[in-house]
Design a protein that fits this description.
The chain has ten helices and 19 strands. The chain is α/β, with parallel strands linked by helices and 346 residues long. It has three domains: 137 residues, HAD superfamily/HAD-like (Rossmann fold, 3-Layer(aba) Sandwich); 115 residues, Rossmann fold (3-Layer(aba) Sandwich), CATH 3.40.50.1000; 59 residues, no CATH class. The strands form five sheets. A six-stranded parallel beta sheet has the order 5-4-1-13-14-15. A five-stranded parallel beta sheet has the order 7-6-8-9-12, sandwiched between helices. Strands 16-17-18-19 form a four-stranded antiparallel beta sheet. A hairpin with a 2-residue loop joins strand 10 and strand 11. Helix 5 packs across helix 6. The protein is globular.
């Protein structure tokens, strides 16, 4: 997906969009608290279009997430507005294991709730001969739960072993105190023990995006995320325009180095910029300009011609210039100022 695609120069990222689909951690909140400008910006967007939320975090029920969003000021949020990775995991499970089967769960209440709602019996012990293992994030997941999963998954699936479904494989999760290990690190621990790979239900896989688009009846959705490898890659794979907001995990240096499979349609410093005209990318010879910021590619050198008035435009110009070459970031000498990071993060 090309940067700045499908939009006129003077339009905002929201023009023509009928549904805004937002990630939560690093986009709406970090820990329990809302990120600056996120709530007001999303409420404004929701005045004329549908708002939905897609989360890989498997620790909470959809209604619990909706209640949290209402407390933060997103007053109209309902449980059906929240699409969770446990819901996507259950759909994958239903393709492999019949209703009523016993499933070993590694994770919290959000995952248990969805499994029991779908008619499965939940266990925490490999001794109960589970028909599958479903693994998701919860703050209290520890060694004993990971060990039970390893015991249950000792036999490879192609040798008669049981299915293993992970709600997601996010390596990190933004918290109020900083960036903490995510479900991907816990899934990796089990993988290291058993030498197997899990089937993944959430971002960047398509099922969770397809569910959201279908649920909200979206014809022209826009997805907002803070991670290139899950949020943006998943939206791109699903054919959805995307916004990377620099309030979460990925930073300007990651944007400049983004591979073709995870490049956002838009880059914003915070969600206020959803409502601002998105500047055109202009190319004149070897100089790429966005707003008043300009970058030149000179062989292996990336040169800043003009920093411009806004740091976000310099990031946009640098990304557009580097991406247009088709060359990997390690083939360039990049000035530190181009990936300076004045943007808010937890």
């Amino acid at each position: 997906m090309a940067l700045f695609s499908r939009r006129r120069a003077a339009s905002t990222p929201l023009d023509g969009v009928d549904a805004v689909l937002a990630d939560l951690d690093g986009v709406v909140y970090a820990g329990a608290g809302a990120l600056p400008y996120a709530v007001a910006s999303l409420n404004h967007a929701g005045e004329t279009r549908r708002l939905g939320y897609i989360t890989n975090n498997a620790s909470r029920r959809d209604e619990t997430v909706a209640a949290h969003l209402r407390e933060l000021g997103l007053a109209a949020t309902r449980a059906e507005d929240v699409v969770t990775s446990p819901q996507a995991a259950v759909r994958l499970l239903q393709e492999r294991v019949p209703e009523g089967a016993t499933v070993l769960v590694v994770g919290g209440d959000g995952l248990v709730f969805e499994l029991e709602k779908a008619g499965y019996t939940v266990t925490r012990s490999a001794d109960d001969a589970p028909a599958a293992v479903v693994q998701g994030f919860a703050p209290d997941v520890g060694w004993s739960q990971l060990a039970e999963a390893a015991y249950a998954l000792a036999l490879p699936e192609d040798e008669g072993g049981i299915p293993w479904i992970a709600t997601n494989t996010d390596w990190t999760i933004p918290q109020a105190r900083g960036i903490a290990p995510g479900n991907g690190t816990l899934v990796s621990a089990v993988h290291t023990a058993v030498g197997r790979l899990a089937v993944v239900a959430g971002k960047p896989e398509r099922p969770i995006f397809d569910e959201a688009v279908n649920r909200f009846g979206a014809r022209h959705p826009l997805f907002i995320g803070d991670r290139l490898d899950t949020d943006i890659a998943g939206a791109q794979a699903a054919g959805i325009d995307s916004v990377l907001v620099l309030t979460g995990v990925d930073r300007p240096k990651h944007v400049l180095a983004a591979p073709t499979t995870s490049r956002p349609t838009y880059i914003v410093g915070d969600l206020r910029e959803l409502h601002e005209p998105y500047p055109e990318t202009r190319v004149d010879g070897d100089v790429t300009t966005v707003g008043d910021a300009s970058v030149r590619i000179d062989g292996p050198d990336v040169q800043i011609v003009s920093t411009g008035d806004r740091p976000i435009d310099l990031v946009r110009a640098g990304a557009a210039a580097i991406w247009a070459t088709g060359r990997a970031i390690y083939g360039f000498r990049v000035p530190e100022r181009l990936y300076a990071d004045p943007f808010h993060r937890p």
